Amino acid sequence: QVQPVESGGGLVQAGGSLRLSCAVSESIFSINVVAWYRRAPGKQRELVAEIGSGGSANYADSVKGRFAISRGIAKNTVYLKMNSLKPEDTAVYYCYVESFNGVNWGQGTKVTVSS
Q1: Coil, strand, or helix at residue 75?
Q2: What is the mean pLDDT of each run of 10 residues along the chain (115 residues)?
């Protein structure tokens, strides 16, 4: 099993933008779903966005219209573009990969949105 690697987190002011990246080492042909989850301080982990092998995407209601999930040209990288960030978006963001080999989670990347 190969762990996905996230990057792109950081500190940003409210209203700003960040782009998270998830580098996936598994063969794209074996991947069913790549998703972004987040865990805010004191809260449970929640699904933010997911993208299927066919390219269809789903979003949490709280981020619809502000976040966009996409795959790189080589499809080995999945991005989460986050616009109009709010303090309540502050969390550790995790990449989740579901494939024929099972499920893998990344270590997470921290996003802090200041008011």
Answers
A1: coil
A2: 90 98 86 95 96 94 97 86 98 95 94 97
Beta strands in 1-115 (DSSP E): 5-7, 10-13, 18-23, 31-39, 46-52, 57-59, 67-71, 77-82, 91-99, 102-105, 109-114
Res 27: pLDDT: 79
SS3 26: coil
**How far is Cα 102 from Cα 31, in angstroms, rounded to an integer?**
9
Q: What is the pLDDT of residue 1?
A: 57
Long-range contacts of 22-25 (CB under 8 A, 24+ apart): 22/77, 22/78, 22/79, 22/80, 22/95, 22/97, 22/106, 23/76, 23/77, 24/76, 24/77, 24/78, 24/95, 24/97, 25/76
